[in-house]
Specification:
Strands 1, 2, 3, 4, 5, 6, 7 and 8 form an eight-stranded mixed beta sheet that branches. The chain is α+β, with helices and mostly antiparallel strands and 175 residues long. It comes from Pseudarthrobacter psychrotolerans. One of its GO terms (molecular function) is acyltransferase activity, transferring groups other than amino-acyl groups. This is GNAT family N-acetyltransferase.
Length: 175
């Protein structure tokens, strides 16, 4: 599936909200009343304090992701020189078609074009096994020393990191 990654426009926000909600709920990551769902669904706030991007295929938005940098409100783990991505969600209707892989490759391309960015970081809950397989297949490596727990909850979050110098060539070789 051919996918184009671009910055989300306000007109995309309802679709970003729907895709994110549907992806997290259908994967059983959270229940609809979990407090984090309100964070995921507040696309306006995300766009105000980070970069919300969408992936389009055949004229429709099929995925969304949030990009942030060290010191910004949506950054959880980025250090200086890292691009962090969060809240990657692929519409359940197209999951398994390569959209998630295309989005992460697009993030890698974008990171390589940014001056001063030498790596990409991502936090992923231990139960998000499909995401871990995707990240590792594209060259991301676990960084256990940076793992952390959600404050007030018994949820361990794993950190994955990719050096972007030469990362695209390496990820294409693995594909």
């Amino acid at each position: 599936m051919s996918v184009a990654l671009r910055r989300a426009a306000p007109s995309d926000f309802p679709e970003v909200r729907r895709i994110t909600r549907d992806a997290y709920l259908r994967a059983d990551h959270f229940t609809a009343d979990h407090p984090y769902m309100s964070v995921l669904e507040d696309v306006d706030h995300r766009a105000e304090h980070a970069e919300v991007w969408v992936a389009e295929a055949a004229g429709s938005v099929v995925a969304a992701v949030t990009l942030t940098f060290a010191g910004q409100p949506y950054s959880e783990i980025a250090t200086d020189g890292e691009l962090e991505f969060r809240m990657l969600a692929v519409d359940p209707a197209v999951q398994g078609s390569g959209v998630g892989r295309a989005v992460v490759r697009g993030i890698i391309d974008h990171a390589q074009s940014l001056p001063g960015i030498g790596a990409i970081s991502i936090t992923s809950a231990t139960f998000m096994e499909r995401a871990h397989v995707l990240y590792e297949s594209l060259g991301f490596e676990r960084v256990p020393a940076r793992d952390w727990h959600v404050p007030g909850e018994d949820v361990l979050l794993w950190v994955f990191r990719l050096e972007v110098f030469g990362a695209l060539a390496a990820s294409q070789a693995r594909a």
